[in-house]
Amino acid sequence: MASDQPTPGEELPPSGTAAEVRYGLHLLWENHLVMAGVIMAVGSVVLALLSNFLVNPSAAGTNPNLPRLCWNNPFVNWNIQGINNCGGAVFPLGTDYYGRDLLKMIVLAIPLDLQVALEVVASAMVIGVVFGSVAAYAGGLIDELILRVTDVFFAVPGILLAIVLMTILGRTISNLTIAVLITWWPLYVRLIRSQVLSEKEKPYVEALRAMGSSRPRILFRHIVPNSIYPLLVQGTLDIGSVILTFSTLVFLGFAPSPVIPELGNLANQGIDHIATAPWLMIFPGLTILIISLGFNLLGDGLRDIFDPRLRR
Amino acid sequence: MKLYEYAIRRLILMVFVLFALAVFIFYLTRGLLPPEDALSQFITPRMNDAAKLSLAQALGVATKSCPSYAAFIGQQDGCVVPLWGQFTGWISNALQGNWGYSQLPGVTPGTLTTWEAFAERFPFTAELAISGTILTILIAVPFGIISATHANKLPDHVSRVISLAGYSVPQFWFGYMLQIVFVLYVAIHGAGILPSSSTLPTSCGLCLSDPGTITSYTGLPVLDAALSGNFAYFWDSLLGLALPTITLALTTIGALTRILRSSMVDALHQDYVLLARSKGLRERTVIYRHALRNALLPAVTIAGLILAFLLGGVVVVEYVFSWPGVGAAAVAASTAFDVNFLELYVLVTAVILIVANLGVDILYAKLDPRIRY
How far apart are CA A23 and CA A256, in angstroms? Predict the structure, then answer.
């Protein structure tokens, strides 16, 4: 069959790829901001992978005898009256409402936030590639239908739709993931659709068609791989945004339990104790900021590397 | 295609999208839940089962032949109207402004309709969103211009980091940081300035002692105070608006700065800028009279979208600053299971967003004669 023949795209040796990668790494190295982003993003992933070795997960358990909301790190003086002193062991970032070491809780929380972000972004990408590329390649009624469905989702602010979904679905972590995903996928459909639209007019697609390649093969073996870079950039940027949205929803009280170590959940404990235990708000939020900023800087740098027009 | 033909086409699409959204939201809030939940917002404490049954029939959830309320709750055969029939009843009620009674915390059941509860909170949200939009424009426009004229130099890098930080900061955290700094520390270790929410604390150092009262013209406290000529009230409302506005504008400032930068960089590379420079015009004139006027076009039209975006995106900020708007009420409505409020909020926000999008596209076509639809 004609479609089993090797196609020009596959025959081409990966000439220049190594040079491209080297040049990309060079750009990365040159740009200190992006390097800072790489360090923050990779550091948070490494910390997440190691978290169960660094901190015993049983530290998340509660015990009424633990010293609640206390601070005894001698290097920081909050200058607030009425702070509890922990006595005994030093807690570098103080303790939370349940008397748990806040630093340990943050280390235990990072994997959950990153895992949800990866799940949402990866699923949104898959949905986006399937529906977006089909919409662009098929055109006509199918395109119109898929576009109008995404219109419906774009008409509602994401956080509001997520709140409605959580009201109905019930408060669990997996439902939170689903709620964020439902607000997220239309963006990827639009993105990959616009990429495929410009890609499918290129001469190599016509050449493939002339050689008798089947439509699914042209679409998924040739057009999609060629239009995937902006999706990867968006995905990197969105890891940060999903962590923000997810932890914000948890912060607003959509967590199954206030005890679960999650960055938004830890900050939520701080609301009622903002005047006597500000660390409970400050450090979990700061962790979210660092992770999110890391992925945003990285994504911003990847955009420069993948888009030759922006190179200087 | 003429502009008005395009506008009509878009309006038809808008109706379609709103209808699809209504179906989606109805299915979420009613289709996935037991049928008697549709009644919950209409039930007053004094109703007996017969009254509840006739209410269910009036709402189009129970069939006319249903023998008793218990049979309806038990979902006996032929007692519950199929979902599609329920939807037509719900949408015709909704279009007549009948959204049931509010179940928000602090509201006596059966005294306040959902529509009234929404309407009395909405001006506060609008006020916050409008001031957020104004602050965004005031900060992002100069930032965008400076980044473009100093592209890839230090000011550009600084504004890039600030923009990215704006995307990356958790809004709730930033709001509480402002509160910790201005309310906790400044209030304790000095004169308290900048109250953290619309309810003014007594320690507010710069607030005037008794703001008095104002006449309500628009529902927006700041505007009403100015129209009433009550300076004390105006000053107090403005102070109360400061911290939430800064928190709210954080994300949009970054976005608008980046958009303006890229359109300004494009404009500065155009031939007419080269011509202006070669005529020997001053750089200031070239930037502000020639490049900026063209670069502002996409940015100005986006201001409408920012306003619409902020109108829907105030949930977190209102929650953090205990702002009496619809956003904080949405969180409360979710906890109190007040689905009517959520339905109303979603659909009103969708109408605002879609109309803003349409308005921006038409404005864009009006301002830029090169654009043809």
Answer: 47
